[in-house]
Write a structure and sequence with these properties.
Number of strands of chain A: 11
Number of strands of chain B: 11
Low-confidence stretches of chain A: none
Strand content of chain B: over 45%
Largest sheet of chain A: 6 strands, mixed
Mean pLDDT of chain B: 90
Largest interface: A-B, 22 and 23 residues
Structural class of chain A: mainly beta
Oligomer: heterodimer
Shape of chain B: globular
Helix content of chain B: under 10%
Number of helices of chain B: 0
Low-confidence stretches of chain B: none
Distance between the termini of chain A: 41 Å
Order of helices and strands of chain A: EEEEEEEEEEE
Shape of chain A: globular
Structural class of chain B: mainly beta
Largest sheet of chain B: 7 strands, mixed
Distance between the termini of chain B: 37 Å
Order of helices and strands of chain B: EEEEEEEEEEE
Radius of gyration of chain A: 13 Å
């Protein structure tokens, strides 16, 4: 059974810092991995999607990497801003038609 | 990205009443939609998967007679919470999968906050 873990559960950093959020999964047989952002009381916004054959994806200040063999993904946020404060969730899909399995999320707070 | 809307964004109802939540894909056709439930400070729990024109597939432990799902068209799915009770109070989020687009990426609605008094 696939399990997804995110560490840390919460993180507080000063504005301007670069930071890394971690996601690990127990079964390396995945189809793809997605990173999401969730603001309080809101739905999920898709940030990056990495296919199993890919190593990383980049969008603006965000970079997500995937090491399928070790069951790990990281989300790197460069030059953090207070507007980046939110909960970040990673999720994996086993196959093309499969469901997303979510981690518990990392609650990020960027202090001005 | 693809846009998914939900209506209403919040609802308060009395115990014993039924509540319907709508989920729409605004600029794409979604052959598959998902319904999730989220408790405070917790991750999303998948309740059911629905494919257009067929019966929904419910996750273990989710009562299909309690949570009625209808996916009548490629742009609309509804979740009806029947005979709601306070323990049904939660944040309900729908998601749609974009068939034919890159890697079956999923997009999520803004969520519906249900409070049952």
């Amino acid at each position: 059974k696939q399990e997804v873990t995110q560490i840390p559960a919460a993180l507080s950093v000063p504005e301007g810092e670069n930071l890394v959020l971690n996601c690990s999964f127990t079964d390396s047989a995945i189809y793809n991995l997605q990173w999401f952002r969730q603001d309080p009381g809101k739905g999920l916004t898709s940030l990056l999607l990495i296919q199993s054959s890919q190593r990383e994806q980049t969008s603006g200040r965000l970079n997500a990497s995937l090491d399928k063999s070790s069951g790990r993904s990281t989300l790197y946020i460069a030059a953090s801003q207070p507007g980046d404060s939110a909960t970040y969730l990673c999720a994996v899909r086993r196959n093309q038609g499969g469901k997303l399995i979510f981690g518990q999320g990392t609650e990020l707070s960027v202090k001005p | 990205g693809a846009v998914v809307s939900q209506h209403p964004s919040w609802v308060i109802c009395k115990s014993g009443t039924s509540v319907k939540i709508e989920c729409r894909s605004l600029d794409f056709q979604a052959t598959t939609m998902f319904w999730y439930r989220q408790f405070p400070k917790q991750s999303l729990m998948l309740m059911a998967t629905s494919n257009e024109g067929s019966k929904a597939t419910y996750e273990q432990g989710v009562e299909k007679d309690k949570f009625l799902i209808n996916h009548a068209s490629l742009t609309l799915s509804t979740l009806t919470v029947t005979s709601a009770h306070p323990e049904d109070s939660s944040f309900y989020i729908c998601s749609a999968r974009v068939s034919g687009r890159t890697y079956n990426e999923q997009f999520f609605g803004p969520g519906t906050r249900l409070t049952v008094l």
